[in-house]
Design a protein that fits this description.
The structure is a single chain. The chain is α/β, with parallel strands linked by helices and 319 residues long. It folds into two domains: 5-215 and 295-317, Aldolase class I (TIM Barrel, Alpha-Beta Barrel), CATH 3.20.20.70; 219-282, no CATH class. The protein is built from 13 helices and eleven strands. The strands form two sheets. Strands 1-9-8-6-5-4-3-2 form an eight-stranded parallel beta sheet. The chain has a three-stranded antiparallel beta sheet with strand order 7-11-10. Helix 2 runs parallel beside helix 3 (50-68) and helix 8 (187-195) packs across helix 13 (299-317). It starts with a helix and ends with a helix.
Length: 319
């Protein structure tokens, strides 16, 4: 299937995934200017009124960039909406997105037909992240335009399935836009994602170790110094299984190898500065692909290197 225009003209087929606390206007604008989709969770803008200011700034700066660089326009941006019932800001955040006609809305932890309809009403598209084929079918049935397959090894909330299995099952019936998330940190891996059937790569952890990311320096260095073996998979911190940096768990005084089980009932995405923000601030999410990240650098430089790696991989395979 031909990708919608919003996703077909990227200079690298990548969506920068929305990183809780980490993603803000600086990171999103830099990603879009570099030619990949930049995104952020609506809940990062606290208080809720700040979301309007962020969308104003992002829209204005990208428009100015496009006027000054007609031959290298910015990629579109996306806002991530947590659809879980505990998110008491969802309706207000969606109204703000409607005001600014956000081009792409990424939905997580629940799928709602009325939300998809609302986004389509202002001309946007929706992408829903899923961890298995069953959730993928539900999302499409409720009107999602595309899917983000979150496979094992992805940072933050992640699934358990191999990307080979997950992409293959979804592609048996779904021909729409499909992104793959899980340990993708190089241009070679972006091409590999496409080879197995995805249209786009969904990349998060490498962008934590960038100048524009809203992360403390110890977190950025943890990404640079970390390896796949330093990632711990646990549902303790949010009630949903996710991948985290071992060193942050140890710094919080816990044994990463003996964590108790969490409880889904503890999942809470309320609009205030509650326990969830604390969980992501002190316990650092990360995917298994960080072994390929060897420095903190500007987003533009990271994306440029990925583009070079992607082109070199295509040349090696003569594709």
């Amino acid at each position: 299937m031909t990708l919608p225009p919003l996703l077909s003209s990227l200079r690298l087929p990548v969506i920068g995934s929305p990183l809780f606390i980490i993603s803000g206007p600086d990171l999103v604008i830099a990603q879009c200017k570099a030619g990949i989709v930049g995104s952020f969770p609506a809940l990062n803008a606290r208080p809720q009124a700040l979301l309007d200011e962020w969308l104003h700034r992002i829209t204005q700066e990208l428009s100015a960039h496009n006027r000054a660089n007609p031959d290298a326009p910015a990629a579109p941006f996306a806002v991530n909406q947590i659809v879980h019932k505990s998110n008491d800001r969802l309706e207000a955040d969606l109204a703000t997105c409607a005001k600014w006609q956000v081009p792409i809305v990424i939905t997580s932890l629940g799928a709602r037909e009325d939300l998809n309809t609302a986004v389509h009403g202002w001309g946007g598209i929706t992408l829903h992240d899923v961890i298995d084929d069953r959730f993928a079918r539900k999302a499409v049935e409720k009107g999602a335009d595309g899917l983000i397959a979150v496979a094992t090894g992805a940072g933050g909330h992640a699934g358990r399935l191999s990307p080979f299995a997950l992409i293959a099952e979804i592609r048996q019936w779904f021909t729409g836009p499909l992104a793959l998330s899980g340990s993708i940190a190089t241009g070679d891996a972006v091409l590999a994602a496409q080879a197995m059937g995805a249209d786009l790569a969904y990349i998060g952890s490498p962008f934590i170790a960038t100048t524009e990311a809203n992360a403390e320096e110890n977190y950025k260095q943890g990404i640079v110094e970390g390896r796949a073996s330093d990632i711990v998979y646990s549902n303790l911190f949010t009630g949903v299984h996710g991948n985290y940096l071992r060193r942050s768990i140890e710094a919080a005084g816990m044994d990463p190898d003996n964590l108790p089980e969490g409880d889904l009932k503890t999942m809470d995405f309320g609009g205030g500065n509650g326990s969830k923000a604390k969980a992501w601030r002190d316990i650092w999410g990360s995917g298994q692909g960080i072994g390929s990240v060897d420095r903190v650098e500007l987003v533009a430089d990271r994306v440029a290197r990925m583009r070079a790696e992607y082109s070199a991989a295509r040349a090696r395979l003569a594709v």
